[in-house]
């Protein structure tokens, strides 16, 4: 006390700094304590992996819910102007589901929002940045394509496509968005030529609905991609959420319904983990890129081979080649597998 | 060993005091201010070094000392503005700074110059100070402020912004802040800073009024004439230590040696006294007087001069000016 | 021991102290200039949006969202100002409240009156809060007026960022919510600034500390590798006011930021109190 008093009044500058540091540390510790509580692993009855997979694929519609989805992206892709979520980082989306066909997704940014609403018959895409609305009749067959931020759909598709070429296991339990879940792990069979190490799916113990999808690549302990609910509440939703009325001043454009036969022509080479998808863009899409298909002409590095030439885009989980003649080949595989697929 | 009043000597000091109003220094009144072993260290600088001091109730104490001798720090310690490194301080019988809330309403102070906001007028500044005074009722504030402004001669400038005040006006406003209500103790740190002679006279008059009303006044100054003119008691500080303290006239008498003889026959007087070996000299302050320092006793000198035919108009004990006393005290110590 | 203890009020009435402080704060020329500038911000944005509107379509970003949608203006103005100007204004008030008073020698006067040191902290904090509230009020009120009169938009409606339309009453309710939330964030800044102010006699040190803190927090918040720091940084929740423009309105961001602000407020207040109980004057 004597020393502290002795310093007082004469060494204000030094003390200001000290005060700042002390304040910062105090605040920091306080926040860490308040947010550091980790959820314990829930106790659940054991379940066989095959049974869990079957129950996921045959689970009934979970009914109306709302939730928040967080996407943690470690793919190492460049951020695209039209799609900031592609770059590394964390983005969130809010999801409301009214049951079968009706849903709403809000993709907020710091100063705006994209809102996607499906009212059962019409799909609306609102972008606050330029106040545009794209309106499109819903084709039942292509419905899943309209749910870009839904971890449930993505995880279900992944299980469907990968189970045949994977070792499937249940690796304990997890708590996701406050709900008890099984951790389903799909590991590629040794014959699969893939960049991926494993795919983990947290499955809701009660509803058998995937709550979180984690993609891990070889050579990295951190997830390349993790998308999952951080909040989830089941229950009836306000029907007004699943309607959309273009606000005053908005520009509304009508897009044609997108069926499985329309859009890019698509072929696949291989199956399972080392599947490569080759798409040929429609001729008009190269000149006027639609909002759904970002312009890739400026990213990647030049590459050529017997198949032609194009641009190579690599990430921790996959490889893609955009050829100069308008083909796009991509898969969760090394470059060689993609070029082989293109050469066929 | 002139380090303040020893606690037991304090009372006898009061009894023999020649304060104008003896009833003010009642025997059982606690000292208005008291320091015991008071010490304050800033870093490696010892600002106040073991001060023991009693300020008797009703006294006007002049605190003297060169710049940097610790006057202001001692005042701040007494007022509880800073905590002592060691020792204790009391005001009006209560420990400081612990009982500041009970004591300070009765204490008016002007420390380290006036502190006011430049964008407010003198009156607005005083009202802000008055709003914080526990003993002022809200409805009394306008009257108290006006009275204080009147008392320090600022009534005409009350509505001008403080920014435009001269140094002397600022000092007067500071004084007004200390005098917003009747106080039992008024502490003034260098109150005549920046004041013109008329202002200095006004401050003296105010101190005299406070004294007449029975208040204790502690006034620090480096202007010795001012202290000599207004104070009953003196405390002299040097390098943080109290080197002398006591009643003004006692201290001055203690320094008294020799006689001052007023005479028209200065040369004859000098000649006569030098004849008996006295180190006599002409008084610089008074041309028609000679000073007889240590040596022959008063009756002896007067008899000798009268016999020699020197016309002696007056012979009195020599009282040194405070300035001399101060010089002697501060020269003797490092 | 004496009559000192009996029959006298222990301290000046608290409301009187508070009134004197508020009067002092609002009489200070720089406070008035600052409030004037804050009132000007929405007007300038409104004029800028009108001019840009005539030249081209709606621009990107929050300011772009104001075009043809006047009731967004108050929220946009508060959000933009919260980034730098509002914290600096609060820092200035906090700098004057303790460091400035110490520099002017008036802190001593208050302590000698005496004003209890704890009360002094409360009075000073209230003064800072008044400045924060007045600045936000200026932004909100002038923002609503300029939004309705200069920018215009769908009559009596606000188009949310989510593409829905809400009525005037709800829009004004949301503006009020953002205003209150902003004052809460500023209270945290004010508490930290007062803590710095309690340690110095130089008001500029306080301004520099707050400005430096904002810059450091901004840099730390922009480094992806330090993502884990985000929950600790006061500034990382400062865009949450925009959430009031979404439909349905998410409350998580606003609530998180408020909780964070409370931590800073508590830490700042503790430092101010501990320091002011011992500070020399």
What does this structure look like?
The complex is a heterotrimer of chains A (344), B (334) and C (281). Residues 1-13, 28-38, 144-148 and 284-291 of chain A have low confidence and may be disordered. Chain A has 344 residues and is an alpha+beta fold. Chain A has helices spanning 2-7, 12-35, 49-57, 151-162, 335-343; strands at residues 65-73, 89-97, 102-108, 113-119, 122-127, 132-137, 166-176, 179-188, 196-204, 210-217, 225-234, 251-254, 265-269, 276-280, 301-305, 308-314, 319-323, 327-331. Chain A is built from 5 helices and 18 strands. The radius of gyration of chain A is 24 Å and the shape is globular. With 334 residues, chain B is of the alpha/beta class. In chain B, helix 4 packs across helix 5 and helix 5 (141-151) crosses helix 6 (167-178). Chain C has one domain. The chains are: A alpha+beta (344), B alpha/beta (334), C mainly alpha (281). The interface between A and C is large, with 50 and 55 residues.
Total of helices of chain B: 12
Distance between the termini of chain B: 16 Å
Spatial order of the strands forming the largest sheet of chain B:
6-7-8-3-9-10
The beta-strand count of chain B equals 14
Which CATH class of the largest domain in chain B? Alpha Beta
Q: Number of domains in the coordinates of chain C?
A: 1
Give a quick account of the main beta sheet of chain C: strands, pairing sense, barrel closure.
2 strands, antiparallel
* CATH architecture term of the largest domain in chain B: 3-Layer(aba) Sandwich
* Ends apart, CA distance between termini of chain C: 27 Å
Order of helices and strands of chain B: HEEEHEEHEHHHEHEHEEHEHEEHEH
Distinct helical segment count of chain C: 10
What's the order of the H and E elements of chain C? HHHHHHHEEHHH
Beta-strand proportion of chain C: under 5%
Structural class of chain C: mainly alpha
Low-confidence stretches of chain C: 1-7
Give me the CATH superfamily of the largest domain in chain B: P-loop containing nucleotide triphosphate hydrolases
Nearest-integer average pLDDT of chain B? 82
Residue-averaged pLDDT of chain C: 90
